[in-house]
Known about the structure:
alpha+beta, Molybdopterin biosynthesis moea protein, domain 2, 19% strand, 5-stranded antiparallel sheet
Amino acid sequence: MVMVKKSANRLKKEKEVQELSKELKKYPVVALFSLTALPARYLQRAKSRLRGKAEFRVCKSAVVERALKAAGLPESFVASGSGPCGVIMTSLGPFELFKELKRSRGQAYAKPGQIAPADITIPAGETPFPAGPVLSEFKQAGLDVKIVGGKIHVSKDKVMVKKGEPISDGAAKILQKLDIKPFDIGVELKTAFKDGTLYMRDVLDVDEQEYLRNIVSCFLNARGLSVEVAYPTRDNAALLITKAHRNARALAVSEGIPEKEVVGVILAKAQAHAGALSKLVPAA
């Protein structure tokens, strides 16, 4: 039997895999985040925000993949982390983790060659620049500018770069001069795994305000329907009683039933009818 001596590099990787897989088993939630175009300072910002709540690990892709498999995580989760990925281990729920990472994001200036994530617009209004050489730069960039009170003003909105187009060197410089940061930078959570369920980014990215509005709308619609069909519940009991009282009162007035609560209304109604009738009868 031939013994193959492992290289120091291979032994190091195997140790990393063992250590990471051991850590992964300690946490109920494991998530993967993209390392592509992630500045170190934004990763550090996320770590600082989640200090004591989550552990971040950045290793080579092969180490991460082997560690995930060794920890018994499903193939679907391992496959969801294609490309350079880091690992987050936490006791936070997937939605809470995503929300915390979203809060740690920041804005960044555009760099030449980057693809615009959306239309990048320079809005109309005053700039901080006095009349001078920068005026020519703005005009060359296609901005409609004028001098007002000694300051350069942009006369109307200008779409500097359309969504999906590369940002030119000139456009990047103008945007930076005007302190426009079109890029939202931070840790991009790709997927999370908890209790046998895989949570993809599009599921985790919840607009809480819109979600709350939808819940309120559903509740109001359901309550309205239950009142309409007279289906009593704890939430609509007062409305049903009020509606029944209002309908009974209207019926009593309509049919001339002399109940104490409506007798005044009935008499007023009778008087109004009598007054209208008297106008139709000729005077004697």
